[in-house]
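dumping this here so i dont lose it
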């Protein structure tokens, strides 16, 4: 068995264990023969490794498969044991925290939301979050031995290599550095795998599981909610951070020639996130509306009777003002995409969020205008993919980095 660079791994047995486990995990259920067809390992090695993984409990028997056309013994099916261990996840928002328990397939098992008694008191907030995590564990009859890691997400600038918070955007009174991680080390003294990351990057990481074919590619992720935008640059199944931990802060790309002038919390003006916020979009519609043709819509907008999703769907329903406003939003998206092409040239752009989910017009026109554009006569080879779900993406599926770390460091005595 050799690695991708042609050299033998230092510990072939452990390498094979992780390699076969990754195949079983990705397939869900498979036979030894199917693993053999996907790898260059011998059947003897595969059978022995599966036996070790079964004895450890991370792989389980999943019944019998179908026999071949020639008949014969039905092969054993092997499945990934998602409940072998669990991950605790915490998303720290400005006024509340979302606490979840996820299995090794990153499926949410239980969740509790807590609004801070005093959002400025970091010690009190940490204690309140810990109490919620204990309630979740007690409800599932779990102890710390059942927890393989803790994933912490926060809105702000995070140095994940040091496990430090550089700048908490919403809770600026909170202590920076490794304080939050250190709190959880005290709460869970026997859990070594504790990681903190920017919540947008954690949400973006999940797209590699939505689109597994992108794992080896360079991918830019851009996701917008009603009021904020987050993103990440992914490459070779890893999130890129950059020298100042700012890679992925696409929300703060400035668009100097934008319509109007809006100040951002970062201290600059006309940042992408502010220009596409729902409040701005409503203003664009009001400014572009023809009172003679859409008087009733204008009155509803002035009375704030139009919900966000309905406001975006105006373009799909034929509203000219809605289409003009969405065209402006699309123009800003294209400006960011073109800047990303020049700075990091990703092969894929995965775009999600409120505009993607609520407007076929937005998706169609963004793709059409992107494909019709060129730079120095070069027709773009990159592709735009759309995430049609993504609701609550800032705290869902947060466990992947912790799960990957846990699975990559598994060791077996047998």
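and the seq i came up w/
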């Amino acid at each position: 068995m050799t690695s991708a660079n042609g050299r033998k791994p230092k510990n072939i047995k452990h390498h094979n264990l992780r390699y076969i486990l990754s195949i079983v995990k990705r397939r869900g259920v498979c036979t030894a023969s199917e693993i053999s067809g996907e790898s260059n390992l011998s059947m003897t090695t595969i059978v022995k490794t599966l036996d070790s993984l079964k004895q450890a409990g991370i792989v389980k028997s999943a019944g019998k498969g179908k026999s071949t056309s020639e008949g014969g013994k039905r092969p054993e099916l092997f499945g990934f044991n998602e409940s072998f261990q669990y991950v605790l996840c915490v998303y720290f928002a400005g006024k509340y925290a979302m606490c979840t328990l996820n299995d090794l397939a990153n499926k949410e098992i239980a969740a509790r939301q807590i609004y801070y008694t005093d959002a400025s008191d970091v010690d009190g907030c940490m204690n309140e979050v810990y109490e919620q995590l204990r309630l979740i564990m007690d409800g599932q009859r779990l102890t710390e031995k059942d927890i393989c890691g803790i994933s912490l997400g926060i809105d702000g600038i995070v140095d994940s290599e040091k496990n430090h918070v550089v700048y908490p955007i919403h809770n600026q009174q909170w202590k920076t550095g490794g304080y939050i991680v250190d709190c959880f080390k005290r709460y869970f003294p026997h859990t070594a795998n504790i990681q903190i990351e920017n919540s947008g990057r954690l949400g973006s990481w999940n797209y590699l599981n939505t689109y597994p074919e992108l794992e080896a590619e360079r991918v830019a992720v851009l996701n917008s909610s009603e009021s904020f935008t987050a993103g990440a640059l992914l490459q070779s199944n890893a999130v890129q951070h950059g020298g100042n931990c700012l890679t992925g802060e696409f929300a703060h790309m400035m668009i100097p020639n934008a319509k109007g002038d809006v100040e951002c919390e970062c201290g600059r003006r006309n940042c992408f996130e502010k220009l596409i916020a729902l409040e701005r979009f409503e203003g664009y519609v009001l400014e572009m509306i023809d009172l003679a043709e859409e008087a009733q819509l204008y009155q509803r907008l002035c009375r704030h009777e139009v919900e966000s999703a309905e406001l975006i769907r105006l373009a799909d329903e034929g509203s000219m003002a809605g289409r003009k406003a969405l065209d402006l939003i699309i123009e800003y998206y294209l400006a960011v995409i073109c800047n990303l092409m020049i700075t990091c040239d990703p092969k894929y752009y995965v775009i999600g969020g409120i505009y993607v989910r609520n407007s076929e017009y937005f998706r169609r026109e963004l793709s059409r205008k992107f494909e019709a554009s060129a730079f120095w006569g070069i027709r773009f080879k990159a592709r735009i993919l759309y995430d049609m779900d993504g609701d609550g993406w800032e705290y869902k599926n947060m466990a992947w980095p912790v799960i990957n770390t846990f699975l990559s460091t598994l060791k077996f005595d047998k």
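Residues 71 and 88 are 46 Å apart (CA to CA).
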